[in-house]
Amino acid sequence: MPYACRRIAARATLLAWAVAFPALAAETMLLPGAPPATVVATIGNGTPKVTAKVDVTGAVFRPDPALVALGRRVFFDARLSMPRGQSCASCHDPARAFAATLPASTPGVTQGSRPGHFSLRNPPSLLYVRYVPRRHFYQDDDAPAASPFGGLFADGRADTLAEQVRGPLLDPNEMNNGTPAGLLRNINGTDLAPVLAAQFGPGVRKDPEAMLRALGAALQAYMQSDEMAPFTSRFDDYLRRRAPLTPQETRGLALFKNPDKGNCMSCHTLSDTSSRPERSLFTDFGYDAIAVPRNRALPANRDAKHFDNGLCDTARRLRWPEPTQWCGYLRTPGLRNVAVRQRFMHNGVFTSLRDAVAFYNTRTIDPGKWYADGKVFDDVPAAYRDNINVNSPPMNRKPGMPAALTEADIDDIVAFLRTLTDAAYVPAMPPLQGRR
């Protein structure tokens, strides 16, 4: 069955399932302080379907300052790994907009607390993560069925920031505490334990799950603090007081928005007519399957049968109908501070921002440039390649067709993306790279 027909059929099944099992009209909070969303159905194991997009500008973040300070202390504590020596900041470097600083020998992701053990994905920046809503489904007027949005990690497996911390703390390839009980033993051997007990009660020193909840609450407070959402980029100056962009940056913005050229804004949403920068987070919090090339340097990929299937693993756990329709889908990241990153895409396959932009432009018209050994979409199992987005410009072009963007256009988009760098991180940007 052709891609478009298969996607419509699968989504129609999802819609029918949601209608068949409607939720009583209710409201739920998808983002702290934001207006509650009206829930009209539940999909799978309780994932809400809502009637309107989440308005992040309505979110109000007022974390307890004492809890923020505790969360900051936890974030930088290098004794929370096994063996000790790795903190949250080891993979989310505050000098690089809370993304990864990687050694020259990196395979494209960060090494965990044990030598030779590497994360399966390229760590994202944690700036502006407070705006990511909880998991939900929403259906645009022109969509055949509802689509998933929100959730933390690229596969949406955590619903809140407090839940997310379990991942790196317990992952054997990251901080390697193994189990909540192992984490509790580790923390009880530090002076952090009595501080957490003073904040959350003495039970946290005996109950592993209580300790995890305490760490989650503290780190969530820090992630929700204004420190983690600075809005100090040149683009923010442009939004607030129309500080001019250069001619090249202005061209890049126009190309970024143009649905027949870059078409970047279709997923990386912005509102350059609003003076409120939180309307321009450069993500719609949705998911897409773009099939970036396989990063053959990743240790996990030495196994030819290993694939990162993304959202479908979460869909199975949450009992969404037809979960395999989401295999290959990953959440659209925000692009703020993207120019200070050293590696790009979820698997760290690209070493330059320019390559990441160029990939979208010529993925389907010149696949040999991107995919090794002529194996198109080589990081998605063959059974799921019908899920890959081949309909959205510029990825809808066929071999032999002209590219949507010229080389100069790509340079212009990259120049614009550099304006999204917050003031503190401008020195971390590499020199502007021209065409090759």
UniProtKB/TrEMBL annotation:
It is found in: Cell envelope. GO terms for molecular function: cytochrome-c peroxidase activity; electron transfer activity; heme binding; metal ion binding. Pfam families: CCP_MauG. This is Cytochrome B6. Its main location: other. Residues 1-25 form the signal peptide. The keyword Metal-binding applies. Keywords: Heme, Iron, Metal-binding, Oxidoreductase, Signal. It comes from the Bacteria. One of its GO terms (cellular component) is cell envelope. Residues 66-169, 247-421 form the Cytochrome c domain. The lineage of its organism: Bacteria, Pseudomonadati, Pseudomonadota, Betaproteobacteria, Burkholderiales. InterPro entries: Cyt_c-like_dom (IPR009056), Cyt_c-like_dom_sf (IPR036909), Cytochrome_c_Peroxidase/MauG (IPR051395), Di-haem_cyt_c_peroxidsae (IPR004852).
